[in-house]
C-alpha cells in the first residue's frame, strides 16, 4: 500500500496529541538520544496508544490472523505517527501474524527519524533470522529492534547482539501474548527501562493483549489515537476492551479517506512531558 506525506491540515489535527521532541543520532558512539520539552525528571516516556478498529470494536478477524483495516490515507497517518516517536512497541502476536517492518515508509523518514522497534516477546518466540524488522535494520531502512523477554533467573540487564538488543525482565510475564489471554505485563518497569535508554516517546501499536493491558493503566498513557474503519468483522473477531469503564476527554475527530480517526486523552490525571 502506497504511503504519502500528510497534508498540512492533517498534520495540524494530530499535532496536539503528539510528543514534542527532536531526534538526534550519534553514529560515532552508536547511541540514540532525544531532546524532549518538559520535565526531564520524569521517569516515563511519552506514550501514544494507537490502533485500527472495525465498527464492532474488533482489530482482527481472529487470533493470529492478519487483518487489513486501515485505508491508504489512515495508513499514511500511521507512518507519520511512527516518524514522530522514538520507538514503536508491539507484542509478539502482532509480529508472528503480520511480520511488520515497524518503520516509517514516508519519503521524509530519514534513518535518524526512524522509530526504534520494541517487541514484547516473553518466551522468545520471534524468528530472528527471517523477520522483516531485522532485514530492514540490516539494510539501513529501520533501526535495530529491542526484544523484551521474561527472564526466569530474575536478572535485570541488557545484552547487546549483532541484530537486536534484549531487555530481560526481573518479573516474569505470566501467560502468553496470544488470543484472549490477559497476562500481567510490567508496564512501569518496561517504560522506565526505555526511558533510561534515551527513548523519550513510544508509540504502542498492538496487538490486542498489549493494548488491553495498557488500557488498564490509563495513568501511563499520554494520548490515544484510534482509526475506525467502516466495516464489521463479526463475532469471531478479536476485540479491544479495558477491564473497567473509562473514557476520553479533549477529543477530536477527522476523516482520513474512508476511515474516521479519533484522538483524545484519558480523563485520569496524567504527568506531562
Give the tags.
alpha/beta, 6 helices, 273 residues, Dihydrofolate Reductase, subunit A, two-stranded antiparallel ribbon, 14 strands
Describe what this molecule looks like in 3D.
The protein contains 6 helices and 14 strands. The chain has one domain: Dihydrofolate Reductase, subunit A, CATH 3.40.430. By secondary structure, the protein is of the alpha/beta class. The strands form 3 sheets. A 10-stranded mixed sheet has the order 8-9-7-6-5-10-3-11-14-13, with helices on both faces. A two-stranded antiparallel sheet has the order 1-2. Strands 4-12 form a two-stranded antiparallel ribbon.
Quick rundown:
The chain has helices at residues 8-14, 72-83, 92-98, 132-139, 187-196, 208-215, and strands at residues 21-26, 31-36, 46-53, 58-60, 87-91, 116-120, 146-150, 157-160, 165-169, 201-206, 223-228, 238-239, 248-256, 259-266.
Q: What order do the strands of the largest sheet run in, or round the barrel if closed?
A: 8-9-7-6-5-10-3-11-14-13
Summing up helix and strand content along with how strands pair, one would put the structural category as alpha/beta
- Amino- and carboxy-terminal Cα gap: 34 Å
User: In CATH, what is the homologous superfamily?
Assistant: Dihydrofolate Reductase, subunit A
Radius of gyration: 17 Å
The number of distinct structural domains comes to 1
CATH architecture: 3-Layer(aba) Sandwich
Task: Indicate the percent of residues in helices.
Answer: 10-25%
Strand content of the residues, in percent? 25-35%
Largest sheet: 10 strands, mixed
What is the level 1 CATH name?
Alpha Beta
Which topology does CATH recognise?
Dihydrofolate Reductase, subunit A
Please provide the count of β strands. 14
Amino acid at each position: 500500500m502506497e504511503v504519502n506525506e500528510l497534508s498540512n491540515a492533517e498534520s495540524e489535527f494530530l499535532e496536539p496529541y503528539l510528543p514534542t521532541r527532536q531526534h538526534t543520532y550519534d553514529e560515532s558512539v552508536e547511541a540514540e538520544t532525544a531532546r524532549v520539552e518538559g520535565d526531564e525528571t520524569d521517569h516515563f516516556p511519552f506514550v501514544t496508544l494507537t490502533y485500527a478498529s472495525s465498527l464492532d470494536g474488533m482489530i482482527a478477524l481472529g487470533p493470529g490472523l492478519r487483518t487489513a483495516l486501515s485505508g491508504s490515507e489512515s495508513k499514511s497517518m500511521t507512518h507519520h505517527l511512527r516518524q514522530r516517536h522514538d520507538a514503536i512497541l508491539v507484542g509478539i502476536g502482532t509480529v508472528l501474524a503480520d511480520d511488520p517492518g515497524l518503520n516509517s515508509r514516508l519519503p521524509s523518514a530519514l534513518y535518524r527519524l526512524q522509530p526504534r522497534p520494541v517487541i514484547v516477546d516473553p518466551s522468545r518466540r520471534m524468528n530472528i533470522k527471517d523477520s522483516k524488522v531485522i532485514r530492514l535494520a540490516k539494510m539501513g531502512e529501520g533501526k535495530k529492534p529491542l526484544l523484551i523477554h521474561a527472564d526466569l533467573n530474575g536478572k535485570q540487564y541488557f545484552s547487546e547482539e549483532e541484530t537486536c538488543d534484549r531487555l530481560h525482565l526481573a518479573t516474569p510475564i505470566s501467560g502468553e501474548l496470544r488470543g484472549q489471554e490477559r497476562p500481567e505485563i510490567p508496564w512501569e518497569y518496561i517504560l522506565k527501562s526505555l526511558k533510561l535508554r534515551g527513548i523519550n516517546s513510544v508509540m504502542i501499536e498492538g496487538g490486542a493483549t498489549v493494548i488491553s493491558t495498557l488500557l488498564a493503566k490509563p495513568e501511563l498513557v499520554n494520548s490515544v489515537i484510534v482509526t475506525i474503519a467502516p466495516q464489521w468483522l463479526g463475532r469471531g473477531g478479536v476485540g479491544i476492551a479495558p477491564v473497567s469503564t473509562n473514557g476520553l476527554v479533549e477529543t477530536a475527530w477527522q476523516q482520513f479517506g474512508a476511515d474516521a480517526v479519533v484522538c483524545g486523552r484519558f480523563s485520569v490525571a496524567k504527568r506531562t512531558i
